[in-house]
Amino acid sequence: MEDSPCHLQRLHCSVKNYDWGLPGRVSEVARLHALNSGSRFRAEDPYAELWIGTHDSSPSFLASNGVSLKSWISDNPDVLGEQVLLKWGADLPFLFKVLSVGKALSIQAHPDKELARILHKLHPDLYKDGNHKPEMALAITNFEALCGFITLKELKGVLHSIPEIVELIGATNTNLVLQTNDHDGEEKVKSVLKAVFTDLMSASKERVTDAVNRLKTRLLKENEVRQLTDKEQLVLRLEGQYPSDVGVIAAFFLNLVKLNPGEALFLGANEPHAYLSGECVECMATSDNVVRAGLTPKLRDVQTLCSMLTYKQGSPEILHGVSLNPYVNKYTPPFEEFEIDRCILPQGETVVFPAVPGPSIFLVTVGEGNMNTGSPEGHVVTEGNVLFAAANTEISVTSASELHLYRTAVNSKVFQAS
Q1: Which PANTHER family match (predicted)?
Q2: Of 83, 97, 141, 174, whose CB count within 10 A is highest?
């Protein structure tokens, strides 16, 4: 029997085979997509992203009838709830993904709404929509990323210890950094960082290739007599993935962040970042706007990237989630479009997700159980299942074996504010 719009809808989701993904045989994306779609994966092909939502680049479809989730929501707008409909129209404001990262993604940033509108208008072929794209990554496995700029003090340390960077950015830029202090004020520090980083990212291909090669040779030699730092080891790894790329050098300017399973990182507009390795669930505003400048074979837009960044410094905040009950942790970023719940339910236990005024999407990654919205029969759920839950639906989940699921929804602060 097909669910009425007020209940649950099973979804079939699409996959992206970008070359930075993990090979099918070890990729969580490949495994979940195969289970979700009933298809087989190819053991050696890269599987990078599972997309769950309404974005035109990779929409999800109702399992019951093959209608796209976007057009079904458009025909049944009440499933979003009144406030979501008023605020964002008849569409999901968030896009949910699973990522399997085998090698580094590009050094990139996502534009804020104003810049996104301008870029979309000027280059609609490159910037596909006019929306901003704040995002949050919640680690499933150990996960590594570059995110945000290191502090001024740390940058001075880099210039003292990495002669190849000094040669690449030149004496004037080097002295500019070394002569700047935190008490010169935040704006001064940011303008210095912007000038130096822009010069670095704009350096000629020949000079970058030369600097990266000399850096690699020196580090490999020093590795024989001393333990390289985490950042130096990373830089050698990046050079192996993207030889002669300016992103190899740029990594020294950014914080290396390591997440354990269950820890999350949020990325606001205009913040530089690059995912490096591991698997995560990711949620973001419904957008696919990316401005890239390194560690990529794709088009780079160095001037746009360097002009849009905030140049804030220091380590990003790592979210550990707030415990709602013994089984569920909630991760709430400072963005209205989304939040994520992570649920680990031991065998034979039941947990209730209270009715909320907006839509939710559930993804089961481990185990099986039963999901019930008050109807007597319930829904058997198992690994790879994705379900859309309409607004104002209370959902009870009982596990038949240890069950891991993720729920993404509109940020609950939106409803508290009204």
Answers
A1: MANNOSE-6-PHOSPHATE ISOMERASE (PTHR10309)
A2: 97
Query: Are 370 and 379 in contact, with CB atoms under 8 Å apart?
Result: yes
Domain edges within the chain: 147-319, 327-414
Distance from the Cα of residue 301 to its chain's centroid:
20
**Residue ranges at the known binding site for Zn(2+):** 108, 110, 135, 273
Phi and psi angles of residue 342, each rounded to the nearest 5 degrees, phi first: -115, 125
Binding-site residue ranges: 108, 110, 135, 273
How many CB atoms are located within 10 Å of the residue 139 CB? 22
Average pLDDT, rounded, for the chain: 93
Phi, psi (5° rounding) for residue 13? -120, 160
CB 135 within 8 A of CB 266: yes
- Coil, strand or helix: which one is 296? coil
Asked if 32 and 82 count as a contact pair (C-beta separation under 8 A), the reply is: no
Strand pairing class (368-372; 360-366) = unpaired
Residues catalogued as catalytic: 292
Which residues lie closer than 8 Å to 217 by C-beta, 6 or more apart? none
Spell out the alpha helix ranges (H) of 55-204: 69-75, 82-88, 113-122, 152-161, 163-178, 186-201
Rounded-to-integer distance, Cα 65 and Cα 80, Å: 20
Expressed in angstroms, the distance from the first to the final Cα of the chain is 36
Collapsed DSSP state (helix, strand, coil) of residue 303? helix
Q: How far is CA 133 from CA 116, 282, 292, in A?
A: 9, 12, 14
Over residues 181-224, the pLDDT tens digits come to 988 999 999 999 999 999 999 999 999 999 999 999 999 999 99
- Joined together, the tokens standing for residue 256 give 């290396």
pLDDT tens-digit series, residues 267-280: 988 999 999 999 99
Question: For domain 327-414, is the CATH number 3.40.190.100?
Answer: no
- The arrangement of secondary structure in 147-319, i.e. its CATH architecture, is Orthogonal Bundle (1.10)
